[in-house]
Amino acid sequence: MAGRVDLDGGKVSPLTICMIGAGGFIGSHLCDKIMEETEHKVYAVDVYNDKIKHLLEPTDGKNPYADRIQFHRLNIKNDSRLEGLIKMTDLTINLAAICTPADYNTRPLDTIYSNFIDALPVVKYCSENGKRLIHFSTCEVYGKTIGCFLPKDSPLRQDPAYFVLTEDASPCIFGPIDKQRWSYACAKQLIERLIYAEGAENGLEFTIVRPFNWIGPRMDFIPGIDGPSEGVPRVLACFSNNLLRREPLKLVDGGESQRTFVYIKDAIEAVMLMIENPARANGHIFNVGNPNNEVTVRQLAEMMTQVYSKVSGEPSIDSPTIDISSKEFYGEGYDDSDKRIPDMTIINKQLGWNPKTSLWDLLESTLTYQHRTYAEAIKKAISQPVAS
């Protein structure tokens, strides 16, 4: 394996990494990248390992990664082994979170505990033991844009200063307390502030990542197939589930919210730059998204319908979308941000990173994987008679 160099031409020494949440969507892709292209070692920490089993238990019986990845099944909220793992590593990456919007209303306490209280020991252990931390936050910390509070006919709504989200300048604007949808964003913002304070007061070396809708194979769950039947995943997985079942895609409050989407493989490249360039990444908060892939949720539904017809060979249903209120879909207490468009100045300056993959291409990759992986299971589930 060829030696790796950082952005300044220096040799990258092999690292030992404690990756918390390694069994999830982002963690599994990051583990793939590290195993396939580097000499770094990973202590993979999670309660499930289904998405990284191919790294832990290869089907041919030979495991080229056996001495470089270890799975540790533990829950960070109540396991004393965590500090020992962090002490043995050079870098901790914390991906653990409850990050499904449907949970923010129905499980606000779990959401707050998972994203703030449970993260406290991780930050503490890194700070006290002099270990570097890469912490995954969210674009939701920005809340609503300044522009959404302007009159609808105001020309300022078109001024990027009022809607493009910048790490060190944009305010974090949330809804009222009874809108429990913001429980996630508030918890994530507070742990960011605590990490920043640990850096300022105690010298913690940290990098904070704010993902903007990372999309690709293995993301989220399909209800009743590889997740709970009553569960509601995030928007792209919701739409995928509808397409696989040949149901109309549900547009919450008309699908007027605007979002940007970035391909997981592009985003993982950004994370690798953070891992291997600490001198450029430490002390920074990075937006990681693709402002060129901006659409309304309604436009996303229309594009996904077209892409799925292409990859599946099935024609679209007669009424491909239906409108539904946020109260009906998510329950009381839901609120939403209007736009999430990341400013990319800081990550481009510090790490030279820019996303590459178009929205159409990332949707085609994702839906091809989902059709191949889930279509037969869903057909079988639909054909089963329902017990009376």
From TrEMBL:
<dbReference type="InterPro" id="IPR001509">
    <property type="entry name" value="Epimerase_deHydtase"/>
</dbReference>
<dbReference type="InterPro" id="IPR036291">
    <property type="entry name" value="NAD(P)-bd_dom_sf"/>
</dbReference>
<protein>
    <recommendedName>
        <fullName>NAD-dependent epimerase/dehydratase domain-containing protein</fullName>
    </recommendedName>
</protein>
<dbReference type="InterPro" id="IPR045869">
    <property type="entry name" value="Arna-like_SDR_e"/>
</dbReference>
<dbReference type="Pfam" id="PF01370">
    <property type="entry name" value="Epimerase"/>
</dbReference>
<dbReference type="InterPro" id="IPR050177">
    <property type="entry name" value="Lipid_A_modif_metabolic_enz"/>
</dbReference>
<dbReference type="GO" id="GO:0016831">
    <property type="term" value="F:carboxy-lyase activity"/>
</dbReference>
<keyword id="KW-0520">NAD</keyword>
<feature type="domain" description="NAD-dependent epimerase/dehydratase">
    <location>
        <begin position="17"/>
        <end position="289"/>
    </location>
</feature>
